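Researcher: Go.
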Amino acid sequence: MATDTAAAAAPKKAERPGTGYLRYGAGKVGGAVVSLFAVLVTSFFLFRLIPGDPVKYMTGGRQVSNEQLAAYRREFGLDLPMWEQFADYCGKALTGDLGTSYQFRAPVIDKITEALPNTLILTGTAFVLYTALGIFLGTRSAWRRGGLGDRLNTGLALTLYSIPSFWLGLLLIIVFAVGIGPIPGLFPTGGMESGSEEGFAYVIDVAHHLVLPVITLVAVEYGQTLLVTRSALLDEMGSDYLTTARAKGLRDDLVRRRHAVPNAMLPTVTLIFVNLGRTVAGVILVETVFSWPGLGGLFYQALSVPDLPLVQGLFFVFAAAVIVMNTVADLVYPLLDPRVGR
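Model: Structure:
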């Protein structure tokens, strides 16, 4: 009994600094690896439920014999049992080989690498704009909650956030590209470039094509950042440290910028990383509506065949980008708030 009492009274051995964070980080990274494998499995089996025969697509509608169709299936391994196809797919994916596209007859990774910069130009530009706009309007709305500006900002953000992006894109094309009534067509109806410009004129041409798809993405996406920032800042408004800062004579603007906003940014930081992962994935519907030659348009094109290796590769890249950015957000969060991960 005395031994048990002494053991209970003995202080616990203190953990070395950083051990808790390492354990927390290892758990998050391990969870990400499991999620990536689950995506790999899902991407293989899910798209084999799509109706359509990719081999018949590869013949271009020509009349071919059964022997030729069988030769195509042998060439792409479609004649193998499903479990062998799956094992081959996983083995190659671990080495970075996502297969060969049926319709392009090129490595999937090459097609993804080719289209990725175009997606980053579009969604990266929109990401910077809607993040900055959402944070700015969210802080303004929270600090002046209940006012006319707050009601207008919140109402508009909720309205635009609920609008389907493809519908808004089509509306912008009708009004500002085709032209309606007294409004002339000011912007291209689609594509990324006119194809006849070089040098600085090419940059201006691409920027001209960017306007409508970027406006579509910003209008639909900024509301989420605004609402999260506003909610987080409202939670901080009644904190004692803000009352103390005001009691010291600090101006209201300084209290907001130096004290309230930095402490309210933690949920917004998580949202920023999530949106950053979605930036790599692009927005399939918007790229399709505006005929933007990015990953989203490539995914839609591959899905219509169906080009199984290309669809699987793009799906895996889209999901992996979101999973990786979520994991990065989880790893950064304890550095901003030490209470997390203890």
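Model: DSSP finds 15 helices and no strands in the chain.
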